[in-house]
Amino acid sequence: MISPKMASVIERRLLVNYRVEPEVAARLLPAGMRPQLAGGWAVAGICLLRLGDTRPRWAPAGTGVRSENAAHRISVEWDGPDGVETGVWIPRRDSGSRINVLAGGRLFPGAHGSAVFDVRETPDEIGVAYETKDASTRVRVVARVADELRGSRLFGDLAEASEYFRQGARGYSPARAAGRLDGMQLHTDAWRVEATEVTRAESSFFEDPERFPPGTAHLDCALLMRDVPVEWHPLDPAAGTGCAAPAA
């Protein structure tokens, strides 16, 4: 894998968060990872991400591509060489971009499934729906921008939630090669999030009773990032996690 450092702009990143029974989330993780708890719960969710101007870091701004993407994720921790480290496990990535589907896991970390997205967005409301072309995954979310975080049992306020996710900037996902992980880390000096109120959330992933028996996963809250310049740095999972990918 070539794995250059990449630059882009997060035009919209909607983090839809579920609180999950820790032992249920733990069954979905690679060996060596465990759920990173918040308020006694595991934290899982869907990242609905529109990236603009994505390009190798050395390429001039304005030469990159735009794409709609999604990732199902579980916040995790593991024992690193210098103590406990944090990040996210991403069991599935999907994209509406043919470039991302073809290059993911080959030219940059993270294999992507192919999906069709339907986005309806205003400054105050975000609606994102998608279905994978293999019909295995379906999501529909509608959220409104709010002045504060309300009703969450994971986080006491927006600042606490923001810091929790800021610390989880390293993401690992299944590589194309069996038994291996791909890793990537988000870097930005402009981290900022907004609170939202979810008015509709459907997810075939979280509604699957084999993954999440009834009563073990609950919609908790959602956060929004907009117009944040970022870089994506590839990671060598063997250099820090000591984790093994789940069997295929």
N-to-C SSE string, H for helix and E for strand = EHEEEEEHEEEHEEEEE
Percent strand equals over 45%
Rg from C-alpha positions?
17 Å
Low-confidence stretches: none
**Percentage of residues assigned to helices:** under 10%
Shape: globular
Describe this structure as you would to a colleague.
8% of the residues lie in helices and 52% in strands. The longest helix is centred in the middle third of the chain and has 10 residues, at 158-167. The protein has 248 residues and is mainly beta. The protein is built from 3 helices and 14 strands. 39% of the residues are buried.
Attribute tags:
single chain, 248 residues, mainly beta, 14-stranded mixed beta sheet, globular
Question: How do the helices and strands line up, and which of them pair or pack?
Answer:
Elements: E1 6-20, H1 22-26, E2 34-35, E3 37-38, E4 41-56, E5 65-80, E6 83-95, H2 98-103, E7 113-121, E8 125-132, E9 138-146, H3 158-167, E10 170-174, E11 181-187, E12 194-203, E13 217-225, E14 228-235
Parallel strand pairs: 6-7, 6-10
Antiparallel strand pairs: 1-4, 1-13, 1-14, 2-5, 3-4, 4-5, 5-6, 7-8, 8-9, 9-12, 10-11, 11-14, 12-13
What's this model, at a glance?
The chain has 248 residues and is mostly beta strands.
